Amino acid sequence: MKYFILFGPPGAGKGTHAAPLEKEFNLLHISTGELLRKEIAAGTELGKQAAALIEKGDLVPDAVVEGMIANTFAANPDVKGFLLDGFPRTVQQAMDLDEMLESRDERVTGVISLMIPDEEIKTRIQGRAQIEGRADDASDEIIANRIRNYHAKTEPLIEIYKEKGLYFEVDGVGSIDEVQDRVFAAVNKLF
Ligand code: ADP
Fold first, then answer.
1. 32 lines ligand 1 (CB under 6 A)
2. Cβ(109)–Cβ(80) under 8 Å?
3. 156 CA to centre of ligand 1 in angstroms
4. Among 1, 15, 121, 151, which residue is least crowded by beta carbons within 10 Å?
C-alpha cells in the first residue's frame, strides 16, 4: 500500500491539491484538520476539546489525531493507498506513524512538501478567511501563532524525512495548475 504525506505550512495548498491527487492516483485522502472540523460541527466531546485549541492556533494532542488516523486506516483495508494531509505534524506523530505502519508491515512512500514563504502564508490565509470563514483563519494573531507552531513543531520533520530519503519538495508558489503539475510529477516518480 502507498502512504503519501502531503506536507507544508498552513495555507500551502495541501487541501487544494489533495482532491485531484486522490482521484488521479486512487488514494484515500485523510485530512486531520477536516476530521477535527467534522467533530466540532457534530458537537462531540472530542470536538469541543479540539475547538478550544484550534481556535487559538494551537495543535491538538498527538493522541487525538493519531486515534483518528488509526481508525481511518482500520476502516479502509481495501484502498490502494492513503494521502495524509496535515499529519504527521510533530516529531512524536512521525515516530508513532512509523510504528503504526511497521505493525502493518508498511512504510511511508514519500513526503511531498509544498513550500511557500511566511508572507505568502499570511496573504493566502487572509484570503481564505473571506471564503471559508474558519475560526482559526480569523485574526492575524491566530495566523501568526499557527506559523510559529509550524516552524517550532512541524518543520523539524523535514530533516527527519530527508535523512530517510523520503523528502520531495515542490515550489508551492505559482498558479494552482502549475503547482499541481509539480505535485503530480513528484508523486508519479514514487509509483
Ligand atoms: P492548515 O493546514 O491550514 O493549518 P488544517 O485543516 O490542516 O489547516 O488544520 C487546522 C488545525 O487543526 C491546526 O491548526 C491544528 O490545530 C489542528 N490539527 C490538524 N492536524 C493536526 C495534527 N496532526 N496534530 C495536531 N493538531 C492538528
1. yes
2. no
3. 16
4. 151
